[in-house]
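Propose amino acids for all 156 sites.
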């Protein structure tokens, strides 16, 4: 696992969203970007996190922040998740967890005594210059939009 830190250049990426559109880090140059990694569509924590970002989208847009979610789910799953919860942002497909490896969020997890590889819920707040302004390693899923705004305002 890579260990990225605040102040590092965000690793360049290229990935497809739920509709097969390519997204690259360079597409967001000059903008603030929230790149949030989550384990799975339609699970309670992931739904709360996505809905917090949805509900805070007005404030995020006012602050000039764009949002991309990333998980190992396939495009059709992402589209259903977006439709079901009216999510106003794209979700990137990372079935081979290459993007998660790049950002150092794929690795060993423990749950109820079982060990397995999976996504460590992590959010990267990337500034207009492509640098990591903040890393939220254990997001508060029900208040994630507020956490993101605070992180970009240097309050993390």
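Proposal:
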């Amino acid at each position: 696992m890579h260990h990225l830190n605040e102040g590092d250049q965000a690793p360049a990426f290229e990935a497809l969203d739920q509709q097969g559109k390519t997204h690259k880090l360079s597409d967001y140059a000059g903008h603030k970007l929230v790149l949030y990694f989550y384990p799975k569509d339609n699970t309670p924590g992931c739904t709360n996190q996505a809905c917090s970002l949805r509900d805070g989208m007005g404030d995020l847009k006012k602050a000039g922040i764009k949002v991309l979610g990333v998980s190992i789910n396939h495009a059709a799953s992402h589209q259903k998740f977006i439709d079901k919860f009216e999510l106003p942002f794209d979700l990137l497909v990372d079935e081979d967890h290459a993007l998660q490896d790049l950002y150092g969020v794929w690795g060993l997890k423990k749950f109820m005594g079982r060990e397995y590889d999976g996504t460590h819920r992590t959010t990267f707040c990337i500034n207009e210059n492509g640098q990591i302004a903040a890393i939220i390693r254990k997001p508060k899923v029900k208040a994630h939009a507020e956490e993101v705004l605070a992180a970009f305002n240097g309050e993390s």
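Residues 44-55 form the longest helix (12 residues). The beta strands are 14-16, 22-24, 32-37, 65-71, 90-93, 106-111, 114-119, 122-126, 132-136.
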